[in-house]
Design brief:
Blueprint (H helix, E strand, L loop, with lengths): L8 E9 L6 H9 L6 E2 L12 E2 L7 H5 L1 H5 L3 H17 L10 E6 L5 H14 L8 H5 L3 H10 L5 E4 L5 H14 L5 E8 L4 H9 L29 E9 H6 L6 E10 L12 H14 L8 E3 L6 H15 L5 E3 L2 H4 L6 H15 L1 E2 L15 E2 L5 E2 L4 E8 L3 E9 L1
Parallel strand pairs: 4-5, 4-6, 9-10, 9-14, 10-12
Antiparallel strand pairs: 1-7, 1-8, 2-3, 6-7, 8-15, 11-13, 14-15
Helix pairs in contact: 4-7, 8-14, 11-12
Pathway: Lipid metabolism; fatty acid biosynthesis
Organism: Acidiferrimicrobium australe
Family: Belongs to the thiolase-like superfamily. Beta-ketoacyl-ACP synthases family.
Length: 412
Amino acid sequence: MHNATGRRVVVTGIGAISPLGHTADSTWDGLVSGRSGVAGVEGFDSADLPVRIAAQVRGFDPVAVFGKRQARHLDRVVQLALVATREAVESAKLDVAADPHRVGVVYGTGIGGLHSLEEGHRTLLDRGPDWINPYLLPMMIPNMAAGQIAMEWGIRGPSSCTITACSASAQAIGEASDLIRLGRADAVVCGGAEASITRLGLSGFAAMKALSTRNDEPERASRPFDLRRDGFVMGEAAATLVLEERDYALRRGAPILAELAGYGATSDAHHVTSPLPDGDGAMRAMLVACADAGIAPDEVGYINAHGTATPPNDRTEALAVRRIWGDRTPAISSTKSMTGHTLGAAGALESVACIKALTAGVLPPTVNLDEPDPDCAADHVALTARVADVSVAMSNSFGFGGHNASLVFRRA
């Protein structure tokens, strides 16, 4: 299954905006310091909601970034995507104009422009159809982050959007790497964004009983793999990677941060929200990613887990890991303990964490892991970061509908 085309894929740029910071570096600093980005909800009245906490991007002023006119025509999810992508493209020193038809975009989201949808519905009910924003539909449709990225940089190659719930941005990165391997592009801007912390979004997940209700201690609410976990915390973020064919990157003197060596994707075909109890889908995604990278599983030194802090998902992922590695698992942590679950942005944000871990020689922790659940036994990086010389890292993302994706990164 190992890549047969000979075209190797490398990461030359990264960018992020998250509950921990407005750049990849500030986000990483928050992760290694074990800082939680979870707090009381801001921006709308949540007093009557059963869940009143979230991991939001705070201190972000879209008017200052985009100007008043453009900001009004972009949903928050697209605003975040553009901020992360500007950082990634700049750090990669990518000159799209040099060959725009050989550059592509694959960008994921779980939900899309929920802020615009909710505002449009409220306007319809309160003021009537004549007051609907004519930009409503372009602002709410999920593909618009990919479209706006292509327009801002003049990208003329393949452009698409993955909408596979919580695995969306991981699959965007995997599909982007396939475009490069197949020779359909030399560089692809990829990643994902999510901005669905609204009254509707928060209420919907709360109604499913998927969210933590620790409203009085928000910083301790997200606790993956802990015996007292009670659900995930909603988060919002965007993260972008610039992928390039290795020789293409070398020819233009691009900075190479890591190699994207493997990608595995499977489907549980089981249930709309619950994973296969035996972890088979997750296990096979990890094995396919290793085979695609041409490595043995034992070469993986660190796993950034999906680790949402919902009881069945953590238990199933830990079981899948043990089915591959037995009792000698790689070091494993869930950065969702600090960022919350950023849904469609999670795979990309956690890929940034993996790349930083490889380059810095530090593994971010799972905070709030005070009492590990025996059913989630593994080599947990608990509470504080761990110094470790790791050359291969894996990122897992599993989404509603049974979508499973694993990515393998190798130190450059």
